[in-house]
Amino acid sequence: MRTIDVADVTRNIREMCIEANHFLAQDMEEALRDAAQTEAAPLGKQILCQLRDNLKIAGEDMIPICQDTGMAVIFMEIGQDVHFAGGFLETAVNEGVRQGYTEGYLRKSVVGDPLLRENTKDNTPAVIHYEMTEGDRVRITVAPKGFGSENMSRVFMLKPADGMEGVKNAILTAVKDAGPNACPPMVVGVGIGGTFEKCALLAKKALTRPAGERSSIPHVRKLEEEMLERINRTGIGPGGLGGTTTALAVNINTYPTHIAGLPVAVNICCHVNRHAVRIL
Amino acid sequence: MSGETAKELRAGDYVYITGTIYTARDAAHKRMQEALEQGGPLPFPVQGNIIYYMGPSPAREGRPIGSAGPTTASRMDKYTPALLDMGLLGMIGKGRRAEAVKEAIVRNGAVYFAAVGGAGALLSRSVTDAEVIAYDDLGTEAVRRLEVKDFPVIVVIDSEGNDLYETAIEEYRSE
Ligand code: SF4
User: Fold this and answer.
1) Interface contact B174-A235, CB threshold 8 A
2) Which one of A184, A185, B154, B168 is least enclosed by Cβ atoms within 10 Å?
3) Per-residue pLDDT for B3 more than 90?
């Protein structure tokens, strides 16, 4: 049994919220760089270059990459041999978010009650997903999620008979409906299988996968590649103003499902696909 | 921006805005609508002015503003035609607009601009001054008066009803 002080969790999450909002992971930077070279539309190219400049300015001047610094989505993958001491874990996670957003000049975009809509003024609470893993480590992923793209995400409860074609149509429908609203070029996270909520979670988690990394399952990998190509043929382009770069990556995660169902979730993310990872 | 200028702009034009603009997003629009219903005054004169759909991140010391990119315009669609009919000349945001907004743009000779979504750090460099002028309690959603210099935008919907989101996509579509 390994003991971890929850104060360490707070400190790390505080730093990760600030880091994720000012620096994109290298895979996203590289994807943008490559896209700026291959984009066919002159205006699209110009926008992609502006996005690269934007990343540079964000890091150098410590201004968030995007003003929507998101709702903090946090994956806590906890080894079963870990024991947390010093307080309640969830409180420690939210305290890290509170400190990161208030001390790090990040925007507070969370309302406490979805109907009464009063801002909590410190961006808490976070959306926290816990997962038990083997071992005695804790892997923390902080993924601030902007709502321009979150609002364009969809869950489709398809029938088994809809099959592969149905899945492809679902992905294309979500991307086309999102269009310019989701700040393209997008990263498209897809979850296939499980239940209603499981596929949504798979899709969310797919967004945290590095942009250049493909699924290890051959037919899923093929689907990822085909969908990326088809999405880039829609013409939506950077900023939705026309072009050949509509998505930078399509990441698909799958899970077993029921004989009667084929749930598909499409979680759209913008080019500001933020994720910071640390292992304690 | 004068009414003539607004009418001359065409979808696809790349323009730089210099001068005074006002920020308002969801919550501020709701309050402005309520003010209009009760016959009260608006926090700034909409006539001849430009609204920027934007809620910034907090400014660091010595800077006028934090990250300052556009938010999705369609959430304001419900409130926009009334403001256009009162003389609002321009809006800056990102994403598609409803038919009713397009019609009001044409009816009033106005214009809808897009700023590049997700380029808030870059865009903040074109903001030289910012001041909260109303609804301070709304935090990032308060109404701000911004002074901008060479603020880069693209004309998406012009006074003739052309919509760049529709035409430009067709040009690069190869499905
Ligand atoms: S969708 Fe992404 S890039 Fe666009 S405003 Fe929201 S967080 Fe920023």
Assistant:
1) yes
2) B154
3) no
First to last CA, chain B: 40
A13 and A135 together in one domain: yes
Residue A129 shares a structural domain with residue A16: yes
Domains and CATH numbers, chain B: 3-174 (3.20.130.10)
Among the three residues A88, A116, A145, which one is the final residue of a domain in this structure? A145
Q: Categorize the per-residue pLDDT at B2 as very low, low, confident or very high, splitting at 50, 70 and 90.
A: confident
In angstroms, what is the span from residue A7 Cα to ligand 1's centroid? 31
A228 belongs to a structural domain = yes
Q: Name every residue whose Cβ is closer than 8 Å to that of residue B166 and which is 6 or more positions away in sequence.
A: none
Nearest chain A Cα distance for residue B158, angstroms: 15
Q: Do A43 and B14 touch (CB under 8 A)?
A: yes
For ligand 1, atom 3: residue with the closest CA: B118
Cα dihedral across residues A258, A262, A268, A274: positive or negative: positive
The torsion angles phi and psi of A218, rounded to 5 degrees, stand at: -50, -50
Nearest to B121 among A64, A107, A180 (CB): A64
The pLDDT tens digits of the residues spanning B34-93 come to 999 999 899 999 999 999 999 999 999 999 999 999 999 999 999 999 999 999 999 999
Does one domain contain both A194 and A227?
yes
Of B119, B139, B174, the CB nearest to A121: B139
pTM: 0.94
Task: Check if the beta carbon of residue A83 is closer than 8 Å to that of residue A1.
Answer: yes
The reply to whether ligand 1 has any atom less than 6 angstroms from the CB of B117 is: yes
Is residue A46 one of the residues assigned to a domain? no
In testing the pocket of ligand 1, which one of A106, A150, A272, A273 has its CB within 8 Å of the most ligand atoms? A272
The domain in which residue A244 lies consists of 148-273
Q: Averaged in consecutive runs of 10 residues, what is the pLDDT profile of chain A (280 residues)?
A: 97 98 92 95 95 95 96 98 97 98 96 94 97 97 95 97 97 96 96 98 96 93 97 97 96 98 97 95
Chain B interface, best mutation among A67, A107, A117, A176, by max B CB count within 10 A? A67
Calculate the alpha carbon distances from B147 to A9, A231, A238, B28, B138 in Å. 41, 39, 27, 19, 21
Distance CA B62, CA B64 (A): 7
Domain total for chain A? 2
CATH of the domain at A95: 3.30.360
pLDDT (tens digit per residue) in B90-101:
999 999 999 999
